[in-house]
Amino acid sequence: MEAPPPLFSPYLARWQLAPDGAPIETPTSNLLPVMNAGRPAMLKLLKPSSDEGPGIAALGWFAGAGAVDIIATEGDAVLMERAIGTRSLTRMATSGDDEGAIRIIAGVAAQLHAPRSTPPPNLPNLTRRFRALFEAGESHPVLPRCGAAARGLINNPRETVVLHGDLHHENVLDSPRGWLAIDPKGVSGERAYDVANLFLNPVDVDRLVLDPARALRLATIVSDALGIERARVLGFAFAHAGLSAAWCMEDGINPRLAIEAAEMLEPLAGQANRRKRLQSSPGNC
């Protein structure tokens, strides 16, 4: 194995780490798999332009409950637990057990959302999270309707917690401690938003993402598992599909799948909202 780049050297020496794989570079960080006292870990060095600060703060607040644990931090360097299990939720979902994968992710979300004894960190809110959608205008006819749905939900929030912000099949990994979330964005907002991204995943698997019957099953599973309103789950799923499309447009990526998902989810969210209003009307029980 080649020697790692010099930028890792101070932390390898300071924390007595042994390289255990090839370095990885992302737009926001440099990472190196390492061994820490015989246990797998990941050393992450944030780049000056990184926007991962809120995610690291969220990881620290999760304190290993449902997410990989932070072992040490110093400045822009983070040493964290490395999940090394062999099971894959994407593989599970695409090989016939989509509902099983959804239940696992919902269980992880429940752990992440559980109350802690310490005050939560100061994190970006959902209004900031949805900024790209709010600024997208009429880039596509469905986007203003997604934006209106997002505003309606955000302006009338339910229980606000520290959210992962990017829960999906590739961000929940197998480990000796069970299934653990990685790479949170770190957002403060309503719990129902944290499962919105599941409706767009697994990535590029159109037969699942664009299946309305699957979307309804997903909404039922997560609303039951987390004790949240099904109508709000579907509302945030619709809004987030628009946000995903807006992000794609910003990055020059074809937004087709996100747009088609939004168009599929819109009537489901509307129907769930109408049913909710009917059930809450005087004279109904």
Automatic annotation (TrEMBL):
Q: Which UniProt keywords apply?
A: Kinase, Transferase
Any one of the GO BP annotations: secondary metabolic process
A GO term, aspect molecular function = kinase activity
What Pfam families does the record tag this protein with? APH_6_hur (PF04655)
**SUPFAM superfamilies hit by this protein:** Protein kinase-like (PK-like)
Does this entry carry the keyword Kinase? yes
Q: Which InterPro entries match?
A: Kinase-like_dom_sf, NH2Glyco/OHUrea_AB-resist_kin
Q: Which organism is it from?
A: Kaistia soli DSM 19436
Q: Tell me what this protein is called.
A: Streptomycin 6-kinase
